[in-house]
Design brief:
The chain is mainly alpha-helical. The chain is built from eight helices and no strands. Helix 4 crosses helix 5 and helix 5 packs antiparallel against helix 6.
């Protein structure tokens, strides 16, 4: 019998912790925004299809619906907020990066109960899961800069505590 180095002292990979309802909702919003942006689906069609998606029952439905509707309704204002921090026109962003940035900006504006660093970290995870190789780095940079405009008090407090 042949023994491979990988067989010796092989411990199983640790399982990833289960996703929170909020994280699953963000993934579903991301997929819905992609359907809207790339496929031209309207929010009613996205909402009708969403319950068929994997793990929808484990998601925070209220957060999903409110965020999806909010991003679509406020897209122009959100794009304006983001544009100042981009190195190219918003229309030239990959669809994934664009959707993640819209979602992250919306959440920073409308969910003050969630720390901005959590929102940015969740956006990075979405970009890693759905986007290209380095898209998460771009999303991180843009949302970190946008946080200064969208959450100035929270950002200033964090910087002050880090320098103390």
């Amino acid at each position: 019998m042949t023994t491979f180095a990988s067989d010796i002292n092989h411990e199983p990979e640790p399982k990833a912790p289960p996703k929170s309802a909020r994280r699953r909702s963000r993934e579903l919003v991301m997929q819905g925004l992609y359907q809207w942006r790339v496929g031209g689906a309207d929010e009613a069609a996205i909402e009708a299809y969403a319950p068929e998606m994997e793990d929808f029952a484990k998601a925070d439905r209220e957060f999903f619906v409110g965020t999806l509707r909010g991003v679509i309704a406020q897209r122009e204002a959100l794009v304006s907020q983001i544009t100042a921090h981009l190195d190219r026109p918003f229309s030239e962003l990959s669809p994934i990066e664009a959707c993640v940035l819209l979602l992250g900006s919306f959440e920073m504006l409308h969910h003050p109960e969630t720390p901005y660093r959590v929102i940015i970290n969740e956006a990075i995870e979405l970009a890693k899961s759905f986007g290209g190789t380095d898209g998460h780095k771009y999303v991180n940079g843009v949302l970190d800069k946008a946080a200064g405009d969208l959450r100035p008090v929270e950002v200033a407090a964090r910087r002050a505590s880090r320098s103390a």
